[in-house]
Amino acid sequence: MAHSGINVLFAGHNFARLMGGLWTSVWIAALSILFGGILGILFGFLRTRSNRLVKLIFRLYLEFFRIVPTVVLLFLVYYILPRQFNVNWPGTWMAVLAFTLWVAAEYSDIVRGALESVPKHQIEAGEALGLNDRQLFWYVSLPQAFQLALPGTINLATRVIKTTSLLMLISVMDVINIGQQIIEANNNEHPTTVFWVYGLIFILYFIVDYPLSWWERRLRKNSKEVK
Amino acid sequence: QAAANQSSVAAIKKRGVIRIAVFGDLKPYGWVNQDGKRVGYDVYLARQIGKDLGVKVKFVQVNANNRVDTLNSNKADLVLANFTVTKERKQIVDFAKPYMKVSVGVVSKKSHPITKLSQLKGKKLIINKGTTAENYFTQHQTGVTQLKFDSKTQQFNALKHGRAQALADDNSYLYAWVKNNPSYTVSIKHLGAQQSISPAVKKGNKSLLNWTNKEITKLNKNGFFEKDFNQELKPYFGKEVKANDIILEK
Amino acid sequence: MSWSVIVQSLPTFEKALWVTIWMSAVGIALAALVGLIVSLAEYFRVPVLRQVLTVYAEVARNTPLLLQLFFLYYAFPVLGWKMSATACGIVGLTFLGGAYMADGFTGGFEGVSKTQIESGKALGMSDWQLARYVVFPQGLALSVPAFAANVIFLIKETSIFSVVAIPELTNTALDLIGLYYRSNEYLLVLVLAYAVILIPVILFLDWLERRVRHGAFGN
Amino acid sequence: MATELMRVDHLDKYYGDWQALHNINFSIHEGEVIALVGPSGSGKSTLIRTLNGLEPYQKGTITFEGKKVTPDKVSWQKLRQEIGMVFQSYDLFPNLTVMGNILLGPTKVQKRDEGEVKAEAQKLLERFELADQADAYPRQLSGGQKQRIAIIRALVMHPKLMLFDEVTASLDPEMVRGVLNIMQELAKKDHMTMIIVTHELTFAAKVADQVLFLEDGRLRETTSAKQFFTNPQTDRAKEFLASMDY
Amino acid sequence: MATELMRVDHLDKYYGDWQALHNINFSIHEGEVIALVGPSGSGKSTLIRTLNGLEPYQKGTITFEGKKVTPDKVSWQKLRQEIGMVFQSYDLFPNLTVMGNILLGPTKVQKRDEGEVKAEAQKLLERFELADQADAYPRQLSGGQKQRIAIIRALVMHPKLMLFDEVTASLDPEMVRGVLNIMQELAKKDHMTMIIVTHELTFAAKVADQVLFLEDGRLRETTSAKQFFTNPQTDRAKEFLASMDY
Ligand SMILES: Nc1ncnc2c1ncn2[C@@H]1O[C@H](COP(=O)(O)OP(=O)(O)OP(=O)(O)O)[C@@H](O)[C@H]1O
Ligand SMILES: Nc1ncnc2c1ncn2[C@@H]1O[C@H](COP(=O)(O)OP(=O)(O)OP(=O)(O)O)[C@@H](O)[C@H]1O
Ligand SMILES: [Mg+2]
Ligand SMILES: [Mg+2]
To answer: Looking at D136, D158, D180, which one is the last position of a domain?
Structure first.
């Protein structure tokens, strides 16, 4: 019985379909991280420089995303945007949008934190050389902040990848959704399908996520040792 | 209205694609076989509609509880997802002529069949969010605890694992399901009035609504639904279900 | 946007709010306990147990809660292990949260400076005394920020309980949308409900963080 | 006497409500070396940072090469090309090599030709026995090496005045000498104008022409180095010298 | 002569493959003060840490009060109650008050009566002019005060031997004196047996009976303090003394 369940994974195009679903999840994650990362750097930079009002606005933006669970965020974008704003994209792009906004919020805080933890005396050493604000940012703050922000960046990426599991809820044909289709098509004949399909997806997520979190851990350890 | 125009017959033809919302995990109405191909009673109809319109069909997979929003948010032009016509739904979407009849049924274990609503009191009942079954049990106080799921896959798995004593959904696919799960039976065949299932379009989309009405009438006349039934449903149903239980009279 | 729709839904949401709150509370408490056990095994380098728990933590950290719940709820019964939805939710949250909490505590313990540990040793402290008087008080204080982040994270993760039919906030909102098609109203109430839970929690944790920091390190 | 390079008149500086510097007056001439000494917290760092525009001041004037300094960002940015500064903390940029650190100011700020600056940098590195380190990263260097490179990084901008804030305070004792040697050479050979904050009184006695003794934000004594170390005027300076001389 | 308190024979210590200490031999008698000096990186900290069991060693023996030390965790834990140690970094426990810091060892490790220890601690605090600080937290103290309290914390355990690893190295110059004063008093008045790693050679000359000069992990000289500072035997020691005396 258990045997028949595992065969379902390789029957027909099932395995290829699952991999296709995984690819959907991965590229949505990748694009969101890319777009969200760019926005996040911009927002984070603005948060260290701007006047009170701009800071407050970005702070509120961040707090909104801190409070609203990502599932809810997906539904907000999925239900509200098309109707209220006539935005009419396919589900995958809705997902990219929702994730991008979320990543931008979280990443802006990582970037702000990193920029602020560049030691003050480094900035002063730059000032003492006569660097102007723009030069200080490009030659001193940014390269050092990048190092400081790297572990946080990777950590966020792992979370985004894991969160793609929610795409199923807004009908994106992600790996879980395809898994459910397979389960539905075979469950009656092979009751253990559910176990093998979810098991495979579980492992797939682990395979994608683990190297990143391993890398993050190593970076953090190294930076501790340098200290 | 700009939004309605996006789904007018002219717009669809111009685009060359009609977007039709279907289920992906509702065997045998809308599901995906192991080759990754969408099949089922609704899907069969969808493909025919595409052919008759002379456009390609793009499927949008939905769950029971986002069928309305899929239309309202312009993600699909037409819903063919076992969409039961109800008073409430009529207020927010426009239904075309029905192409199936249905009523809410209850499935339970053969060994402990639930044949009367009163037996449900104090028990657990599985339903799918956004279905007529949910409507029914929300409106009729039966003293049952509802377990609400997002998808068909989830709800049937939950039933099999004994997470509740019964499951309520459209009787049309309960029949199919019990065929493969012979220890269960559709112990209540009809709850409430007989209802019908229709294609739905966004409210105000007269153009597509009229076209669809004509299409249904035409298909009904030339026996399309019988063919559809025989090909997509019959193999999954038990002997006790006849074409007449599902499709409408000509 | 209809005011009356919102008002009518409030009693339903209130019930769901309590479900979210109590399940979060229990799940987080258990997660903290598991996290503490894992981090203690790591700190005392307990053979075998430590390796086993490390594998657990890696698996829990690198897979989505949604799949963990699917497994517990839909796949395990195939093998004959069945838990109620509530139990699945709590176990899932504990499983995931335990790994995150362990990370936080371990980070705190490792953050205690080497010189502090050596000055404890120089006073002749045994391993246990070192842990009791030096590493734990300082390490736990250091781990408060991570703990706070985890609490907020885990409360938000309960929104995924929806997939195993637990009637918490998100499930309730989706359900109401499916029944009455008033997505604007219900989503608004849903967001507000999370704000009602999380804002006090965030404020409390901020306060706790400042207090502990000052108590332990004076800054 | 040589021309006056910088003068400070009636300078007051506050941190919030609290006055850190009280009515500071002094001047420094070309080629002169001033040692700024005093107990911890007396305001030495505050004063020397003010002279480089890193701290705003609330009253008084700073005059550089006969021109009153307008205390805004842009003027200071320009002026800092004429005034080099080295701090106590090793402040090389960790993401750049030694050469990268040295080139940054001349090429990006002064827009000088990279090849020319590089040649000059190479010469300075050789002069101070650091030629091997040109491609090293700061983390690969000892504290003493880092400080010497920080000095070169400032020198290559051709400053007219160099400010040093306890540049040897975080160094291992044996490293101190190498750094002090450079500073001594700059003073005696290059006749660099310098203001040096230091706790190394023996060194100060050797290189300084003048000593400013600061206490509680006030200049208590401004005398020639010779006189200060052999025969300080004020009791406070005497006490201070006694406390430092274990 | 007084009895031998500790002796070290043929001690070798490796960090991984790299040998940090080579064949170290010396002994210290009751009431004696040894100064351990040498360039940075020569292994002073490594040696003194080894004497307190904070670093394992690979060859040789350490003998304490005539008994060979078995180099395991539990023996060292016991022994450390007899050997006090103070480090360069201010290492008071930040979550405890001054009194809490002082009481921790005697009451928790030695299980002595709290009241009695408290009275003794109070006396020590008074003796070293820190009585007002008993209820303060470390963060409220200056570096010099912290180091003096760290010394008291070690003393209250009644150690037979005290180890000091550059206890004044991170202090502001004016703070140094207070700490050195205590150590001098311990040496001269209390006749405490002590091994002191220090860069303050003037101080070492004053308090030490013997000097161990370490270089590259090898003991290059073991002589009386008088001889070492006036007339060192080896060239290396001469160089070292010259480099330190700027
Ligand atoms: N940014 C600041 N804000 C408020 N007060 C400050 C600030 N920087 C320094 N101070 C205070 O100003 C006084 C002078 O400090 P400063 O650092 O100039 O002393 P210093 O003479 O350089 O001491 P040290 O020898 O320890 O370097 C001190 O009381 C210090 O606490
Ligand atoms: N944990 C360690 N692992 C590897 N090498 C080490 C370790 N600790 C010290 N060393 C090396 O051992 C040598 C001796 O170091 P040690 O700290 O004992 O010198 P020191 O004489 O105390 O120097 P300082 O005067 O700078 O304190 C140095 O080369 C150092 O790099
Ligand atoms: Mg200073
Ligand atoms: Mg050392």
So the answer is: D158
Phi, psi of A109 (to 5 degrees): -75, -35
Q: Which ligand is nearest the CA of D44, by number?
A: 1
User: Are β-strands D193-197 and D33-37 bridged in parallel, bridged antiparallel, or unpaired?
Assistant: parallel
Q: DSSP character for C102?
A: H
Give, rounded to a whole angstrom, the gap between the first and last alpha carbons of chain D: 37
- Residues D70 and D183 grouped into a single domain: yes
C-beta atoms of E243 and D175 within 8 A: no
Cβ–ligand 1 contact at D46 (below 6 Å): yes
CA-CA-CA-CA dihedral for A157, A202, A94, C176, to nearest 10: -120
Range of the domain at D116: 92-158
- Which of C119, C133, C141 lies closest to E87 in CB terms? C119
Name beta bridge partners: C45. none
- Which has the closest alpha carbon to C115: E150, B88, A34, E91? E91
Least confident of B48-57, B156-165, E2-11, E60-69: B156-165
Q: How far apart are CA A200 and CA A180, in angstroms?
A: 12
Whether residue E172 sits in one domain with residue E54: yes
Please report which confidence band the pLDDT of residue A194 belongs to, taking 50, 70 and 90 as the band edges. confident
Q: pLDDT (tens digit, 9 = 90+) per residue, D58-73?
A: 999 999 999 999 988 8
Which domain-ending residue is among E158, E180, E214?
Answer: E158
- Is E17 domain-assigned? yes
Neighbours of D218 (CB within 10 A): 16
Per the structure block, which two tokens stand in for C131? 């842990």
Closest CA to D121 of D140, D87, D85, D148: D148
CB D194, CB D183: distance < 8 Å: yes
CATH class of C3-217: mainly alpha
Q: A171: closest CA among B81, C179, C184?
A: B81
Residue keyed to tokens 């290396």: E236
Q: Is A159 helix (H, G, I), strand (E, B) or coil?
A: helix
Q: How far is D160 from chain A (nearest CA, A)?
A: 13
Does the structure show a pLDDT above 60 at B172? yes
The answer for residues whose C-beta is within 8 angstroms of residue C76's C-beta and 6 or more apart is C82, C83
Is residue D154 located within the same domain as residue D165?
Answer: no
| Cα angle, residue A197 at apex, residues A191 and A203 outer, rounded to 5° | 145
Q: D176 by DSSP, 3-state: which?
A: helix
**From A220-224, B130-134, E108-112, the region with the lowest mean pLDDT:** A220-224
Per the model's pLDDT, the better-predicted residue between A12 and E129 turns out to be E129
Residue A224 · residue C93 · CB < 8 Å: no
**Nearest partner of E180 among E169, E156, E243, judged by Cα:** E169
Cα–Cα distance for residue pair B29/B231, rounded to 1 Å: 11
pLDDT above 60 (res B4)? no
CA distance C97 to chain E (A): 28
